[in-house]
Amino acid sequence: MSLRIADLQIPSIICGTDHHDRHVAITLSEALEKYHALRGIGKDELFFRASSRFVKYEIEELGDRNVADYSSLDAATYRDRLFDRGLSSSSVKRTFSSIRSIVNFAIRENGLNCPNAFSNALIPDKDDQTRRIPIPTDYLKKIQSECVKLDDEVRWLIALISDSGMRLAEAAGLSKTDLVLKCDYPHIDLKPHKWRQLKTKNRKRKIPLVGNSL
Questions:
Q1: Residue spans per domain, the chain
Q2: CA atoms of 182 and 130, how far apart (whole Å)
Q3: What is the radius of gyration, based on Cα positions, of the chain?
Q4: In the predicted model, is pLDDT for residue 86 greater than 70?
Q5: Beta partners for 206?
Q6: CA atoms of 113 and 107, how far apart (whole Å)
C-alpha cells in the first residue's frame, strides 16, 4: 500500500508524513539535556543523578541514536539486558519510566510524528525484590559500645543513626536548629535544607531521640 501511495504522488500532508518531521533529529543524550534544563527546575540532585544513570545504561546497550530511530525490539532488548545486569523488576520499571518520560518530552518539544518505542515494553513482575534484614541486636550493641569508646564526630553520627532509623544523608545534613532538646520529649525536626534535600516529601518528620541517639 505504501508503494502504491508513493506512485500516486499524494501530497505528504494527506499521508501524515510531513517532510519537516523526518528532518528533525534529536539524540537521546540531547533530549536528556533539554529535559534537565526544563523539567529539572526546582528538582533535587536525585532527579538529575537517576535520569542521567538510566540514559547512560540505555546508551551503553543501544547507542545514542535519534529518539525516533528506536524500535519496540530495541526496548525489549534493553529490558532483557537490564535484567542481565541483575536489576530487579522494580528497578527496571523505574528505568523505563524515566526513559519513557524523556522520549515523550523530546517528541512533544520537537513536534515529532513518531511513537515512543519505550511506552509498551512488557516488564514482568518477578519475585526478585531484595529483602533487607535488620542488623542483629548484639551487633548493634557492639557498634554502639565502640562509638562510646571512640567518642568522635564520626562515631556520634553512627550512634545518632543507630537508634533513630534516619538515613545517613539525613543525619549528616542536620542543622543545630533541627535538634529540639529543651522539651519534655527530645526529638529531631527533620526537614529539607538548601544543602541537603530529603529523598521524598513525606520524609519530613519528627524523630524521637532515645537510647544512644539521644
A1: 2-109, 137-208
A2: 40
A3: 25
A4: yes
A5: 189
A6: 7
Q: What is the pLDDT of residue 153?
A: 93
- Alpha carbon 50 to its chain centroid, in Å, reads 4
pLDDT at 2 over 80: no
**69: alpha, beta or left? (left if phi > 0; alpha if psi -120 to 50):** alpha
Helices (H), 135-198: 137-150, 153-162, 168-172
For residue 15, the model assigns a pLDDT of 47
Q: Are 166 and 160 in contact, with CB atoms under 8 Å apart? A: yes
SS3 189: strand
Q: Which residue has the cell 501511495?
A: 5
pLDDT band (50, 70, 90) for residue 19: very low
* C-alpha–C-alpha distance, residues 158 and 160, integer Å: 5
DSSP character string of 94-105: HHHHHHHHHHHH
How do beta strands 205-208 and 179-180 pair? unpaired
For β-strands 187-190 and 205-208, DSSP reports them as antiparallel
Helices 45-62, 72-84: inter-axial angle, 10-degree rounding: 110
Q: What pTM value is reported for the model?
A: 0.60
Per-residue pLDDT at 13: 47
Domain boundaries 2-109, corresponding CATH code:
1.10.150
Contact 89, 126 (CB under 8 A): yes
- 15: which 3 cell numbers? 499521508
